[in-house]
Amino acid sequence: MARACRTFSFTFESTGLGVIFVPKLIAQHMSLFNNISKKVEEGILYLTINRPDKLNALNIATLKELKEVMQQAYDDDEVRGILITGAGPKAFVAGADISELKDLNEVNGRKFSEEGQEVFDLIENSHKPVIAVVNGYALGGGCEIAMACHMRVASVNARFGLPEVSLGIIPGYGGTQRLTQLVGKGLAFEMMMTGDMIDAEKAQQIGLVNHVVEDQESAMQKAEDIMKRIFERAPLAVAMVVDCVNAVFSEENGYLLEANSFANCCKSKDFEEGTSAFLEKRKPDFQGE
């Protein structure tokens, strides 16, 4: 009897031990980064900013790795959703690396901001759901990462803030826009003008955080539970929700996009499956088609 064989393509990967030759299928799930660790389990990409000795401060190298991981996730069919968190008990991401900020000027400062915005736009516009799991400090760039995610789950010891004015600058990775979108103009002005931190309970009260739970482990569990519920829904419809919600804050006509997206859903196999399953009183088997 003939046996079906799986075909592997290969790629070169550079490691601290030199260059190795590995299958692409394996390589895309290998964590060969210095500042980020990642793993994929049951469709969830666990993306961890891994600089606990620096309170996971967001330096340029980490930002580049974050961009690469997000780009890989876009194209990886095994990844259905993404959880972003920080290593260690003290911080999600405690801000930017100040040693890098001190050398900025008008020219490279603009580039610094634009490149960060590009990475965070990848998070915000991902058709795969992205949830921030926040423990400890989420300040400056850390708060901006969390706000770029579609949802935020925090432990009670989480602290949020955009303290850039204390350094003589402003949030540069989209923070002025996303905080205002999430909490409103008045509270955004207060948080960014004073640079003060708020606790997790306050963050939930003002709409910055979706859920607050007891500790880091519980926050991860809550985020996993939400993600698994989303996985039960139609992937194409979930992706179109992302586009339509984000259109509220863009120059695009959100109502027109909603109507077009609704029409596209109606021609999908997922729509056919979803309505059939409802009428037949069974669980739908969505394929993202």
End-to-end Cα distance, whole Å, is 33 Å
User: So how many helices?
Assistant: 12
- Uncertain spans, ≥5 residues at pLDDT below 50? 1-30
Percent of residues in beta strands?
15-25%
CATH architecture of the largest domain: Alpha-Beta Complex
Oligomer: single chain
Report Rg: 20 Å
Question: Percent range for helical residues?
Answer: 40-55%
Task: Fill in the CATH topology of the largest domain.
Answer: 2-enoyl-CoA Hydratase, Chain A, domain 1
| Major sheet strand order | 3-4-5-7-9-12
Highlighted features:
single chain, 289 residues, alpha/beta, 2-enoyl-CoA Hydratase, Chain A, domain 1, 2 domains, 6-stranded mixed sheet, 4-stranded mixed sheet, 12 helices, 12 strands, globular, disordered N terminus
Question: In words, what does this structure look like?
Answer:
It is a single chain. The protein is of the alpha/beta class and 289 residues long. The chain folds into 2 domains: 15-231, 2-enoyl-CoA Hydratase, Chain A, domain 1, CATH 3.90.226.10; 235-279, no CATH class. 45% of the residues lie in helices and 19% in strands. The strands form 3 sheets. The chain has a 6-stranded mixed beta sheet with strand order 3-4-5-7-9-12, with helices on both faces. Strands 6-8-10-11 form a 4-stranded mixed beta sheet. Helix 4 (106-124) runs parallel beside helix 5, helix 5 (141-148) crosses helix 6 and helix 10 (235-247) packs antiparallel against helix 11. The longest helix has 19 residues, at 106-124. The chain is globular and about 60 Å long. The two termini are 33 Å apart.
